[in-house]
Amino acid sequence: MAKKIVAGNWKMNTNLQEGVALAEGVNNALKGFKANCDVIIAVPFTHLASINAVIDQNLLGLGAENCADKKSGAYTGEVSASMVASTGAKYVILGHSERRQYYGETSETLKEKVALALANGLTPIFCIGEVLEQRENGTYLDVVKDQVESALFNLSAEDFGKIILAYEPVWAIGTGKTATADQAQEMHAHIRGLIAAKYGQSVADNCSILYGGSCKPTNAAELFAKKDVDGGLIGGASLDVESFMGIVKAF
Ligand code: 13P
Fold first, then answer.
1. What per-residue confidence (pLDDT) applies to 199?
2. Residue pair 175/135 in contact by the 8 Å Cβ criterion
3. Which of 78, 86, 126, 227 is packed most tightly, with the most Cβ within 10 A?
4. DSSP conformational letter for 233
5. What is the mean pLDDT of each run of 10 residues along the chain (251 residues)?
6. Looking at ligand 1, which residue's alpha carbon is closest to its atom 9?
7. Mutation to probe ligand 1, out of 215, 219, 223, 239 (largest number of atoms < 8 A from CB)
8. Helix, coil or strand: residue 118
9. How far are the Cα atoms of 47, 56, 173, 209, 231 from residue 191, in angstroms, in the given order?
10. DSSP 106
């Protein structure tokens, strides 16, 4: 059975002090409460070491939102997977649609990032998802198939087994327009089917496939009730302790 996970993606929000306070707030809320899922926050690079110092990662996993596609060297401004791991972070979001769209990330660079993340003991939370035009012209299943195959199907079954997937339809991100639970289920089942065909049913059954895109306390339970939806990757609603915890409690 795939692990159930609720992960926050803070994106480019909060300064260091605000971020530490938010992380402490989530960590405190998780104390004395038995969450029925793993809970993770992915935060800006600048916050990682400070947040690691104030949270209990047995309660709240910590991740970065990106890492470099190079190991080390003359790449001004980049942050390597090894640097991320050295902060105490255990996860890294890779291939978010905002990275693909605004920073030109391709399956080729993402393959490198995934390999470096795994080599440094980080668990990638790998994002895929179609844009509105692809949803409307009916190519969305093929688009996501290509995203999964081209960046991840070079992995061994053992390494693929370490990946968390997040299906995030781009038209649902930050728009308030959530995919319906049935739309999410259709895509998640499609993705699990691709994994089963490539790596076998047990790898597919053990792979956590999260849904992301305007997930809120009010719609999380319906989404998470679907057979192939193993949790959520939460943007806006992860910036407030109460709303993030409202989603955690949907499990
Ligand atoms: P929102 O929850 O703000 O729509 O963002 C989703 C997302 O992009 C998480 O990675």
1. 98
2. no
3. 126
4. E
5. 98 98 98 94 99 98 98 98 99 98 98 98 98 97 98 98 98 92 98 98 98 97 98 98 98 95
6. 235
7. 215
8. helix
9. 33, 32, 19, 8, 15
10. -
Q: Give the residue carrying structure tokens 């990662």.
A: 57
Query: Does the CB atom of residue 95 touch ligand 1 within 6 A?
Result: no
Identify the pLDDT of residue 176: 86
What token pair was written down for 28? 């405190």
Side-chain half-sphere exposure of 183, counting CA atoms within 13 A: 18
Q: Which atom of ligand 1 is nearest to the CA of 236?
A: 3
Local structure of 131: helix, strand or coil: coil
Instruction: Identify the active-site residue in 65, 98, 130, 168.
Output: 168
pLDDT at 139: 98
And the tokens for 165? 């997937």
The reported pTM is 0.98
Q: Residue with structure tokens 């409202």?
A: 246
Atom of ligand 1 nearest to the CA of 237: 2
pLDDT for the residue 33: 85
- What pLDDT, on the 0 to 100 scale, is given for residue 211? 98
CA distance 225 to 210: 12
